[in-house]
Amino acid sequence: MIETARHAGIPAPTLQVIGAGFGRTGTASMREALVRLGFAPCDHMVENFEHQERFALWDEALRRKSADEP
């Protein structure tokens, strides 16, 4: 999956914050606040539509979760 992430152009920094939420609950505002506070790069689902190859990462993560793989 790491190679898939590199291929998709996703940087691999140390994870500092996970801010997850349903649509229309302020996730874009939270992303903007985190970026302004220096927690960049900060991914948001909107970027996946701009870089659709990233959907393969989500698909693989869901597949592995369903199969109880790490």
Question: How is this structure best described in words?
Answer:
By secondary structure, this protein is mostly helical. The protein has one domain. The protein contains 4 helices and no strands. The model has no long low-confidence stretch (mean pLDDT 83).
Keywords:
single chain, mainly alpha
Summed up:
The protein has helices at residues 2-7, 27-36, 45-50, 55-66. With 70 residues, the protein is mostly helical.
Q: SS-based structural class?
A: mainly alpha
How far apart lie the N and C ends?
A: 10 Å
The parts where pLDDT drops under 50 for at least 5 residues are none
Number of strands: 0
Strand content: under 5%
Mean pLDDT: 83
Topology order in helix (H) and strand (E) letters: HHHH
Structural domain count: 1
Give me the secondary-structure topology:
Layout: H1 2-7, H2 27-36, H3 45-50, H4 55-66
